[in-house]
């Protein structure tokens, strides 16, 4: 659903009383967030420090949210202070807050996020405008050894003084809604490391849920002082594209003995990869790993370059022996340096903010459409006719859209 379709729907939605209530939508919150705040420059008033200015900017940006009660203010102050001081419990509680579906708690999450964003922006300003954190997306087919790889790399990085957070974009069970990968169980050593934080992000059955909760969890992790954010996803499906739109570097992990990987993994995912890692390159799998490395090196030469400042590389690693892991991190640091120097790093992040905004708009437009009284009244009947083959899905969709737009037009007059 592109802008040409969404703008008419948004125009219709703006006339609904639902958007006039004190409960903001996520799309509207993001539009408020991206609008320039009234206090973009630091006023030269005596007695005002940077903390006061951040609070004024947050209040201006979120002026549409109903006034916070004293308990809500205490909760947000506790979470914010605990988060920026590096308390893992506060970070976990903050991520739980942004994952909620409760309307009022969504508002509280936006207030917290705005404060964290303002704090992070000030830190980046002190760093010469360069981002403090490095976001890395990791993907690969089941059995590629992602969890073991992340634990080895994570322990190496924490040993070097980095703070590492791992956000696992975890497919939810269609039966219970629970997570499937169980990364905190797999990464036993890293989960006990006080310089690391591991958090599964269940998809809740929708990719929109992945985008919203994971993006905001990244912001909170960075606010908590984590300078390396690893975002893991499983399989070779659409969620990889969602994750690639929220990280600075996308790494594809492949096993050496999975048959013809060039056929087995979608070309689009290979095109997204900034680095291809052949895992389990030890013992009897060392020779197959070398062969796969050569195949992918040749294949990447045929694909269109994503960036003028970086050519995708293919490396071999062994999580069991640790061979190749330091060299891998060297390649990742080289990518970061090259893209920062060329400006591609900052440009990509700005483009990702726009993608994030439109993803949230699509999610909320669909929800408002489904909750509209005229649509709710017609939907069961039309679904029944579609399942019986009486009408085509396309005609049913047109009838529902017509009911939505007609009702919205009459209510706005």
Radius of gyration: 23 Å
Order the strands across the largest sheet as they lie in space: 3-2-4-1-5-6-7
Largest pleated sheet: 7 strands, parallel
Unreliable runs = 10-49, 52-60
Helix fraction?
Answer: 55-70%
User: How would you state the average pLDDT, rounded?
Assistant: 79
Secondary structure class reads alpha/beta
Rough outline: globular
Compute the number of strand runs: 7
Distance between the termini: 27 Å
- Helices, by number, come to 18
- H/E element sequence: HHHHHHEHEHHEHEHEHHEHEHHHH
Any overview of this molecule?
The chain has 413 residues and is an alpha/beta fold. 58% of the residues lie in helices and 10% in strands. It contains 18 helices and seven strands. The protein has a seven-stranded parallel β-sheet, sandwiched between helices. Strand 6, helix 14 and strand 7 (313-316) form a beta-alpha-beta unit. Helix 1 packs across helix 16 (344-371). The longest helix has 28 residues, at 344-371. The radius of gyration is 23 Å and the shape is globular. It starts with a helix and ends with a helix. Mean pLDDT is 79; it is low at 10-49 and 52-60.
Looking at this protein, list some descriptive labels:
single chain, 413 residues, alpha/beta, seven-stranded parallel beta sheet, 18 helices, 7 strands, 58% helix, 10% strand, globular
